[in-house]
């Protein structure tokens, strides 16, 4: 196996800032942050790195939540991290990512938010089931994937931000 990336926690200051609006006080946010565990594979042959829920979530049908993971990822050039829902949750409950598949590019870790990854999930249940995720439950998985570029690709700009941050770079196309 090729080793091409590493996960790390964002700073507590960044995590606390990104937890604004979730209804937790400073001490609880500190406890959540201190309890974060880096994404890891469950077995030697697992492709996906499991992301654990940092706090309890109750997700009624047709509702969603944006979960701050507390992590960023540093990758070698030529790789990206694809984020998917845990397959069991998708199969049993129709848990979905709002952007269908999350794409984390190598240069996202250079953003002003320290590359803090968020994962927005939706309970798209057709059977009116509420999904309950306890703190520490796996809810998403990330898979590292290599990619190629065209022979005439000369893009040299980098990003600052997440969703939609490359739209301003369209003049390079």
Structure, described:
By secondary structure, this protein is of the alpha+beta class. It has a single domain (5-148), classed as Deoxyuridine 5'-Triphosphate Nucleotidohydrolase, Chain A. It contains 3 helices and 11 strands; from the N terminus they run βααβββββαβββββ. It has helices spanning 12-18, 26-34, 87-93, and strands at residues 5-9, 49-52, 57-59, 64-68, 71-75, 79-85, 95-97, 102-104, 118-123, 131-133, 138-146. The strands form 4 sheets. A 4-stranded antiparallel sheet has the order 2-11-6-8. The longest helix is centred in the first third of the chain and has 9 residues, at 26-34. Mean pLDDT is 91; it is low at 167-173.
Would you tell me the structural class of the helices and strands? alpha+beta
Q: Spans of 5+ residues with little confidence (pLDDT < 50)? A: 167-173
Radius of gyration from the CA trace?
17 Å
CATH class division: Mainly Beta
Per DSSP E runs of 2 or more residues, the count of β-strands stands at 11
Overall average pLDDT: 91
Assembly category: single chain
- Could you describe the largest sheet, including whether it forms a barrel? 4 strands, antiparallel
The helix content, as a percent range, equals: 10-25%
Q: End-to-end span in angstroms?
A: 34 Å
**Globular, elongated, flat, extended or rod-shaped: what is the shape?**
globular
CATH-level-2 architecture: Distorted Sandwich
Count of separate DSSP helical elements: 3
Brief descriptors of the model:
four-stranded antiparallel beta sheet; 173 residues; 3 helices; 11 strands; three-stranded antiparallel beta sheet; single chain; Deoxyuridine 5'-Triphosphate Nucleotidohydrolase, Chain A; alpha+beta
